[in-house]
């Protein structure tokens, strides 16, 4: 069974809690803005800076994270239960799905295809995708789920900054 174990201090120390389902408000569980290390077993999880799966976000795949760059900032957690097979995302140069577009099915450094720092909207037709502000999976992240149609990144503070994208992959 998939779960996430959170700790109030780095290196898996301090108070701890285990979750197997989405948590819309970590304040209700006594863990709002205090998570400093994480262990993930099974399916990936998305941690959000704000309650109700809003604000900045970061994906955590199976593994142990003894130190977090954004420790003490998470307010909600969402387990990824979507089908990760057959990933596909269509990126658009302008808001409202206008301008040049490219359809991707695998991890791509957008610099390599002359599409970096121009993406302003997208549609996900398969899989769960992570869009990164910088190349090599660095910087801010935006996680998008199957069926998501995001007509503008302006409200997300992610406009024209996506430089790298990758689908979450199913376990072998």
UniProtKB/TrEMBL annotation:
Q: Which SMART domains does the entry mention?
A: XTALbg
- Keywords assigned by UniProt, alphabetized: Repeat
Task: Please give the superkingdom of this protein's source.
Answer: Eukaryota
Q: Which residues lie in coiled coils?
A: none
Which segments cross the bilayer?
A: none
User: Which GO molecular-function terms appear in the entry?
Assistant: structural constituent of eye lens
Q: What are the Beta/gamma crystallin 'Greek key' domain coordinates in residue numbering?
A: 2-42, 43-81, 87-126
In terms of SUPFAM superfamilies, this protein maps to: gamma-Crystallin-like
> What GO biological process term is on the record, naming one?
lens development in camera-type eye
Q: What PANTHER family has UniProt attached to this entry?
A: BETA/GAMMA CRYSTALLIN, BETA_GAMMA CRYSTALLIN 'GREEK KEY' DOMAIN-CONTAINING PROTEIN
Membership in a protein family: Belongs to the beta/gamma-crystallin family.
What is the name of the protein in this document? Epidermal differentiation-specific protein
Q: From which source organism is this entry?
A: Anabarilius grahami (Kanglang fish)
